[in-house]
Amino acid sequence: MLVMSIGHRAMLFDSADALLASASFDSFKCVISDVQMPGTNGIQLAREVRERTGAPVILITAFPADEIERRAMEAGARSFLSKPFDPNALIDDLLDLLR
Questions:
Q1: What is the pTM for the complete model shown?
Q2: Any idea which architecture 2-8+29-97 has in CATH?
């Protein structure tokens, strides 16, 4: 709802694996994902997105740690937010990345 509130279309997926298998994968302008998920995690997803499409990735976590943030950024994440986060921070990052 937050993404749509600023005029962008959003698609939801049950998992990173479902996103990666999507026929629409190459058309995504940005990916927003949690870091910790079953199967492919957010850091692995960021790496895959970087290699396959180069679309910006915003990763979100409830368990922030410097090492996790470092690994996320090395994998290709362009933003790293810790829960709880100000929704305006996500909007600002998204608008900046989609310019």
A1: 0.94
A2: 3-Layer(aba) Sandwich (3.40)
